[in-house]
Amino acid sequence: MDIPGLVVIEPAVFAxxxxxxxxxxxxxxxxxxxxxDDFVQDNVSHSVRGVxxxxxxxxxxxxxxxxxxxxxxxxxxxxxxxxxSPTYRQWTGISLSGENRRQxxxxxxFAHGFxxxxxxxxxxxxxxxxxDHSSEHSILWSDEDLAIAWPLxxxxxxxxxxxxxxxxxxxxxxxxxxxx
Length: 180
Description:
2 helices; mainly beta; five-stranded antiparallel sheet; globular
């Protein structure tokens, strides 16, 4: 990954004629990959082809997330929105699917979104803080300053369609960068 802090995990998969098994989370194993957060909440989202959810983040109660797609396929995006970060406004996109079983770890301070590429998809994300409605924010999915290459024409909620551009958000609504 080009943005420090983002980590792609490819879990070991044990498959045979009956199906497959994988360990989706192990504190010790993931700590070896640099993921030492405590996860406190799991969320599941199910969407149909073309649905784009995002770009979402929480501030001041920022959340780290471990994203995986358990069924179907999605294009998953993380955008560095930490003020003062050397990679501010840079984004990374990766295909996550029930077939490739990859996971993407997104640390606090990033906006997150995904678009469903298959007929439908079920997305699981572990979060490092609880959802807090008063901390919830959105950034316009099509912000020209970010120039995210979404693969499909999106199906959007009103909230995501009407979200502000990153440059229009006040500094206090964005997470600060910390070298720690």
